[in-house]
Amino acid sequence: MKYVIAVIRPHKLEDVKAELEKEEVHLMTVTDALGCGRQKGVTEVYRGVREVGNLLRKVKLEIAVNDNFLERTISAITRGAREGQIGDGKIFVMDLAECVRISTGERGGEAIG
Q1: Rounded to the nearest 10 degrees, what angle do helices 70-81 and 13-22 cross at?
Q2: CATH class given for the domain over 2-112
Q3: pLDDT for 17-71, tens place per residue?
Q4: Which of 3, 29, 106, 112 is most exposed, with the fewest beta carbons within 10 Å of its own?
């Protein structure tokens, strides 16, 4: 089991969700976030508002997947989020020691879905 965290541009969320849907990855948590990276003081426009500074609006996706879904998840996020510019985002992959579905008590890969 793996835990995938992706940090992407907010306006790319719908594209990423569509690509994940094609790969049958349906379960995710999405959070608004602020972050800085190599963009540093680069101006970005979000919903018609210019943002300057080192904390830019981002979206964080968290997805738990079984090992056989890992590569397709990474590929889908990459396809949906890529604009070919600094600031497109990052994907982090971590081992997931345990997953428990609270409603049924299922554990491991079965609990992921």
Answers
A1: 150
A2: alpha beta
A3: 999 999 999 999 999 998 887 766 556 666 676 665 667 889 999 999 999 999 9
A4: 29
Q: Environment class of residue 82 by beta-carbon count within 10 Å: exposed (0-12), middle (13-18) or buried (19+)?
A: middle
* Nearest-angstrom CA–CA distance, 59 and 57: 7
Return the amino acid letter for 67.
D
Residue 53: φ, ψ to 5°: 130, 180
DSSP letters for 3-44:
EEEEEE-GGGHHHHHHHHHHTT----EEEEEEE-STTTT--E
DSSP 8-state secondary structure symbol assigned to residue 96: -
